[in-house]
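REQUEST FORM: STRUCTURE PREDICTION
Request ID: SP-0412
Submitted by: Lab K.M.
Chain count: 1
Length (residues): 507
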Amino acid sequence: MLTNDLLVTRTHKGRIEPVFVVPQDPENLEIASSIIDIFLANIGRTYGELIEEVGGLEEINYRLIRGMAQILERRCTIDKDSVIDPIAARRAVFEESGGFVTCEEARLEILDRTARKLSIKSDDLEKALFADQEDNLVIKEFQTIAPESLLWQYNLSLAQTLLFKATGMEIWIEDNYQQVFWKIKKLGLMYSMQDGKIYLDGPISLFKLTEKYGTALAKLLPAIIMSTKWSLKASIIRKTSQGNRIYDFTLDHTTRQFFGKDYGTGSIVAFDSSIEREFYQLSYNGWTVRREPTVLKAGQYSFIPDFSLERGDIKVYVEIIGFWTPDYLKNKIQKINQLKEKESLILLVNRKLACSGSEFKTDKVIFYDRKIPHLEIIKVLRKYEEKQLTDEVAKLKDIEISLDGDIGIDIISLDEAARRYGVSMEALKETIKNQNRTDYLLLGDQLIGNKILETLHGRLNGVKKYDDAVKIFEGYGIKAHAQVLEFLGFRVKWSGINPENAEIFKA
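STATUS: Completed
RESULT:
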């Protein structure tokens, strides 16, 4: 964050935005490199000397140079350099002089007498007298940074500085929920949720406590932009010749090039316990596992489920309740019972927990001991699959399914048809079976025409090696090799696990 006098913005039709620099621009990189070199060259010198040298670059772009200098100063260790505490040195000299001196000779004599009493050199005493003044502080250490990274931080600081004057903000994030809400809570921000957006409400009066509240919003920004996709809209108060005016400030992930490669990478998969890690690593028969998939509204609070299990359009949330205290458990029960999505929530509850499960207003409570109850979860998911299959078959019942496309197609892949009708492969297969088609045979995920099956039967006569049969099938684009062989009346004789040694014969 920068001081307000270094903020560079532009306004247009009620909107305001920072004037970001392009970090990849060669001229900007050269400026950033020059100021970093100045800081490196001034290690061991005074702060006053550093600022004087930085000032030599200010004619290039005053606000940019000063802004980057402020960022670099935070990477410095700046302290007084004296053999005695400056306050103690000034007190000792004052007491020795009686409060004043009349000439340079008397001044030097007083310094000499005081230095002898303090057992230090006169030069060290004179240096210590003003060693704590800002210009005399010494640059002890400097943690350097790449020029491009400095420009990224400058842009982030510009956006944060603009948010100092924010009275409220609405944000949307695709992931990184835990970190964002942890930061919201730590900063003491008030929030509400609606339609997937998080609203951070401002103070009661737009013109009271604005700076303090805006500072909290500014500190939240780095957590927001760590999300893969995000957007924010803030209301900014600015002084104009007509008085205070409110402008709209918007920002989203499309501006990522201004903030660097370390931002917008999505949340790192991190686990609070070994039981969560185990859940994430298990397979769920075609269901995709996502960590902290979304933020749900639970009354006036937010609720971030540990995981979601997703299959097509179905999304089932999973919350693991292991660690607990009485207050934690009470709050967890209260939140879960206020969820609109609780019918799509599986609760995995530690059996040692001080609850029976009836406290939660859902029938999908599964208790566990030390390991994830994998089979019980699969059973619950199977019910969702069965319901999905029933619904999709019913949907297809009233639709005239066209699979042939062009006349004369001998092999039809069902995956494209399933996507076209927006159903699962299983529902489409079930519908085809009910149609009792006589022109095609369903084998694997393909419909194979009777004529091509007859052709294949003839081509397999005299073929003995399984590999040769597979090459024939691949030439026609057939995938279900074993099923086609079985339908045509062939068996496979295996000699080990190498397909090259396998043979086919008429059953």
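NOTES: DSSP finds 17 helices and 21 strands in the chain.
Reviewed by: T.R.
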